[in-house]
Amino acid sequence: MRKIYLLVLALALFFSSCEKDDICDANTATTPRLVIQFYDFANPSVLKNVTNLKVVGAGMTDGIIFNPTAADESKYLANGSKISIPLKTNDVTTSYTFTLNSGNSNPALVNVDDIKFDYTKNDIFVSRACGFKTIFTLNPTNPYTHTIAADKWIKYISVEKSNIENENETHIKIFF
Amino acid sequence: MKHTLKYFFSFCLVLSISLAKAQETSPKGELTNQPTPKTDGVIPENTEPFKKVDLIAKKKDSIAPTPVKTDRYGVRVGVDLYKLTRALYDKDYKGVEFVADYRLTKKYFLAAELGNENKTTDDTRLNSTTKGSYLKAGFDYNAYQNWLNMENIISVGLRYGFSTFSQQLNSYKIYNANPYFGEVPSIPSGQKFNGLTASWIEVVAGVKAKVFDNVFVGFSVQLKRLVSNKQPDNFENLYIPGFNRTYNGDFGVGFNYTVTYFVPIYKKKITPKKVEKKK
Fold first, then answer.
1. What percent of chain B has pLDDT over 70?
2. Is the ipTM above a cut-off of 0.90?
């Protein structure tokens, strides 16, 4: 008899200490971003770093934050050879302006290119805590529209992966 | 829901302690060790030759027979009040559960629960409605040693549960770790997933007390583990009727508070165990 009381007691204690499990783990693969790598146009197999690249979504005032730790304007500036940008989950097109040498005192060096991405999207169930995620498939015939400004810095855009399902691979290569 | 569950567990805890204390006053076995009154109703074999007896005269000097302790056997049917009353304060829940058990032997009961639930689960990122019915069947073992004509039960048991249900995804949110374009509000869906099934095994610990005549009041806690679970495409069974909320992994918990009525069918005499005499 004593054993049963102990069992009930143990069960009661066990369940009173239950933890909330409805917080989405940061390591869970959720909605992926578009991963872009930059290459040298003259030497297409070599990665090339961009200088002070600022990427702003159409209709947005602030750019995408590439350096969360940096202060002021420089947190929007990318200087590597690889960037990840989000696509709209409630739309089938996302437009960005890519500004090279952003904030440079010499206006002749500041170069703005517009790229519009067209895609279809699919909502995939992840878990109770995370809800759904969106994966994208770039339009097979017209994955992007590169608006040619007076002086374009992007020479060529190549789609490496049209299925954007995770961030472990490069989806777009930009040559300049 | 979470708080209600917490409250009930705390309540169980308090109850279990008070029971333990009540039991403390009479050390187990004391009663059984007492000399058993002679309950042998069988007439000893006659070794002497037959002789005529004056029946009326014989009746006069015979001693009144000792009352025989009997166990009542029958079916107990009832309803889970917890599920029934929950609809009063939880607008997202409608449910009913009928419970029944049949006394098989002195200690073992065949037990079954039949229920129907309609529950809307509102999580931060998902809102879904589950509707369906379930059947649980198994046995209970009464571990309580009753005194005299008491019929209380402290039981542990096993059940196999089976549920058939449908789920409807009402609305959902997209998880976006990089909400550059702002958080997208939840998207209405209305997608329905029919023909879902699940089965599970559960361990039940329960108490039933006779409050008056043939009416019993009891509660039980259940620990469940899924055996099979037919999941919908691109969604998950977040709630299974009878199994309750699903967690990561296959475990679940349950609680019920029952009021049952005992329908006696037959009685069985308790044959006292033979106590070996010390030499």
1. 75
2. no
